[in-house]
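Notebook, bench 3.
Goal today: get a predicted structure for Glycosyl hydrolase from Dictyobacter alpinus so we can plan the truncation constructs. The sequence was checked against the plasmid map this morning, with no discrepancies at the termini. Length recorded as 403 residues. Pasting the sequence as submitted so the record is complete.
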Amino acid sequence: MLSFEQVSTIISQAIPFFSGIILLILLINLFILLLNLATFVRLRSQDVADDNDQVPLVSVLIPARNEEANIEACIRSLLQQQYGNLEIIVLDDQSSDQTAAIVKHLITKLPDQQSPILRLIQGKPLPEDWIGKNFACQQLAKQAGGKYILFTDADTIHQPGMVRAMIQHMQKLQVQLLSAQPEQIQRSLGEQLIVPLLNFTILTLLPIPLIRLRREPSLATGNGQLLCFERSAYQAIGGHSTVKGKILEDVLLARTMKAAGYRMAYADAFELTQCRMYHSFAEVWSGFSKNLFAFYNYSLPFALVALVLNLLLFVVPPFLLLACAVHGSSAGTILPVLTITLLPLIMRMLLALRFTRSNKGWVVILGLLHPISIILECVILLNSIRWHYRKSGAVWKGRYYPA
């Protein structure tokens, strides 16, 4: 039987090796993040309005289900766009609240020259094999007349130059799909701990420049809050019917576009669009539980490997550092452990500084709680897996989503 001294020696020898492997992975993550922060194109607002004879028609499409708290602000922001050739179509997706009434009221209050811009259509009953939002978007696209179709969510608010910047960027890059990342508004502690992990995951794992430069479908991502297609390309891939039963339709549509040979780009719309996806930890729990296992394509081995890696990379190092301090390890042992503990915190803080408009100090402080965020994400992933295998599903905006 090994003595305490022998066990301590083995642990002391294993820690540098373990730390070295984690350090290598984290340095790769840091390199990808720094590359993305340096090259992530920030779309900017323009003050000059477009002549409607000089620009293509853009159809802005908004699926709306039980959005009475958000829909008016969203539509008003779109009506103020500095773009001269625009139509806005809202689909009331079987809402049980005042969503449709609010849109109708806005239409009646519009000046004569603006009234043709805004339309409301009633959504059809949801077929069994469709996800609600996907069916709503497919119906909207059939009503659109624009050369470009821009899907956005009802809980978004847009600056006047948003549409103009999106179309100009698409034309400049000659892409058929542009998706962009809005500013994510987070007010409750639950939101502030969990929602930034979306940015953290994408920007530390996926080199954003390769989305445009490479044609592999795996090098694609999308954000349904801002998803702009050339309509001809959208129709050529079958639109939302190709992902009709999929929860992560935005990412899968982006991959489908690339697989069909079309080009896409991903941009930073921090200055153009704001969105608050969730309003409490309970909503974060439900929303992430609905989506997280789907992110891993419902592959249990893939999801569990990702869970273990997240724990090893972001949760174990602080505890390992504490153990080294208590054990009185040498500086040569503590230094690599300290490095792998600090690197994720530095990455989280860099993201907080880039993608936060106010209260930067508080958000940076929250970055120190990154291990807690990861633990919560892992628990949510386990819950998402549980929902899937127990077929319990999720209820979101009054509609049941089977797992």
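DSSP finds 15 helices and ten strands in the chain. The CA atoms of residues 179 and 266 lie 5 Å apart.
Flagging this for group meeting.
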